[in-house]
Design brief:
Elements lengths: L1 H23 L24 H16 L2 H14 L4 E2 L5 H7 L8 H21 L12 H26 L17 H8 L6 H18 L13 H11 L8 H12 L30 E5 L10 H4 L17 E2 L1 H10 L2 H7 E4 L12 E4 L9 E5 H15 L2 H14 L7 H4 L2 H16 L5 H7 L3 H5 L2 H4 L20 H6 L10
Antiparallel strand pairs: 1-3, 2-6, 4-5
Helix pairs in contact: 1-5, 2-5, 5-6, 6-8, 6-9, 8-9, 9-10, 10-14, 14-15, 14-17, 15-17
């Protein structure tokens, strides 16, 4: 009887692992449980090209539907948990992240861990099955391309996970059918332990190298595609991280991206603006965009309502407390730099009927996602140029670094860097970091920039004295650099361990 109960629990866990992305981000009427052959025919899970096409398409549908975990919550981690934003709303999950008092019971952190593993499941369905589809109309080139795009997606999710939690499970295979005779063999698959950070990065790099080989080239008409340029951008970011840091490779991949046909848009506002009639955005797929999640007319993203109002909806109002409220410290940084161009695209002022962080008659809101039709910009060229400047600075090539920063500053109608900055490595480190803050505010970069450059303690442990509107923050230590592993996951998986400090 005990064996039957144990097997039932294992089967239940296997079902969760195979379908958890559908629990949190519904992507279609089909799943691997209702679409695809488990026992008949050749014994392959997917018999036809159409069946595998469904799983391939589901990757992009899951990305479009990942607005809560992969976009909104990532902004909380990157902006609110850093110095760019306050929580906005008063939810305990948000306030704890603003004040650096998060713990393993935080429901938002829990949903993100689960959702991210679900995204990996959707990638694995393609990676693990596309080569075995017997339908000969699915060409070898298509198999390699679909597998490459799925590999880039898996690598991206793993990259975000390891930056948040450090050691994470590396799941690269689907859960097979479980029987009474193979339960012990399946146990490590059903309850994976956390892999070392070094091993996680090995898998990320391996996936991206495959993607670089077989993914499609950049398409100027469709930036919602996991292309070779996306793989290069991820590789540049990966090699900037401490476990595998190699600044020569960062520069190599950044240079390669620049050769793929991308260029800065002339006007910064073109990245975010809506048209004069407020019926649609002005631009999608700009020359600067490397990867964006597109929501065209007839579609739309709901997350804009969480940050402010929908500029394309006349009935939209500031009728509840919004997330990602711009901080006084960020506003002061823009004002100190005289950076009106970028501040006016990042922040809009309004008069809500309520007051939490500011007086209600002059209240700032995050403005970069200002309508349901705005793309979610994940990677763009300015980010790449400034990352390359960071790498050049680390190598001591301050002239090359300053030239890249100046390209960004000139577009923002600011003066080029002063000679005193260009002549000092320490000054250039700070200049690049400041430029990334002003250029990429509310694009999910700030916290990770601080961690990568070793500036967390210097910046965050002095914030209480600089920002009068900030919730009193707990002191940041080496145990504060990672998020806690959700306690519910540890309770259900005895092979998981908790990060230090939680």
């Amino acid at each position: 009887m005990k064996n039957k109960i144990r097997l039932s629990l294992l089967l239940g866990t296997a079902l969760l692992m195979g379908s958890c992305s559908l629990n949190y981000d519904p992507i279609s009427d089909y799943s691997e449980l209702t679409f695809g052959n488990e026992t008949g025919g050749t014994g392959n899970k997917y018999e036809t090209k159409a069946e595998m096409q469904q799983q391939y398409d589901n990757i992009y549908k899951s990305i479009q539907n990942a607005q809560e975990s992969w976009y909104m919550d990532m902004l909380v981690f990157a902006e609110t948990h850093a110095d760019n934003a306050y929580s906005g709303a008063t939810d305990a999950e948000l306030v704890s992240l603003e004040s650096n008092k998060q713990d393993a019971t935080n429901k938002n952190i829990e949903r993100d861990w689960t959702s991210f593993l679900g995204y990996i499941v959707s990638a694995n369905r393609v990676i693990c099955n596309v080569d075995s589809v017997p339908d000969k109309t699915l060409t070898d080139a298509e198999r390699k391309q679909w597998k490459a795009e799925a590999s880039i997606w898996r690598a991206w999710v793993l990259f975000d996970m390891t930056r948040l939690w450090g050691e994470v499970p590396v799941v690269t295979q689907e859960t097979p059918n479980i029987t009474a005779t193979n339960v012990k063999e399946m146990y490590p698959i059903l309850f994976p332990a956390r892999n070392s950070v070094e091993d996680v990065y090995k898998q990320i790099i391996s996936d991206l190298q495959y993607g670089l080989q077989y993914a499609p080239k950049a398409d100027a008409t469709n930036k919602f595609k996991l292309t070779q340029s996306v793989a290069k951008t991820l590789l540049a970011k990966v090699y900037a991280e401490a476990p595998v840091r190699d600044y020569a490779k960062v520069i190599e991949y950044c240079e390669s991206i620049k050769k793929d046909g991308f260029s800065l848009v002339a006007n910064y506002s073109d990245l975010f603006s809506v048209n004069d009639t407020k019926t649609d955005v002005n631009y999608r797929n700009t020359s600067e965009s490397i990867f964006e999640v597109i929501y065209p007319l007839g579609s739309g993203s709901w997350v804009t309502w969480m940050f402010g109002i929908d500029q394309c909806d006349p009935s939209s109002t500031y009728n509840w407390a919004k997330w990602i409220t711009p901080s006084r410290d960020l506003i002061q940084a823009y004002e100190n730099e005289g950076d009106n161009v970028r501040m006016n695209e990042a922040i809009v002022w309004a008069k809500p009927s309520w007051s939490i962080h500011y007086p209600s008659d002059h209240y700032p809101f995050m403005y970069k996602t200002r309508s349901r039709y705005n793309s979610i910009l994940k990677f763009r060229l300015a980010d790449v140029l400034l990352l390359e400047a960071e790498a050049y600075t680390a190598q001591g090539n301050l002239t090359a670094a300053a030239d890249l920063v100046d390209q960004i500053r000139v577009r923002a109608k600011l003066a080029k860097l002063d000679a005193s900055v260009k002549s000092s490595k320490d000054n250039m480190v700070n200049a690049v970091l400041k430029e990334r803050r002003l250029e990429l505010a509310f694009e999910g970069q700030r916290w990770f920039d601080l961690v990568r450059t070793g500036k967390v303690y210097e910046v965050m442990n002095t914030l209480n004295s600089r920002d009068s509107g900030r919730k009193k923050m707990a002191t940041f230590t080496e145990n504060s650099l990672l998020m806690p592993v959700p306690q519910t996951q540890i309770d259900s998986n005895p092979n998981l361990t908790q990060n230090k400090g939680y």
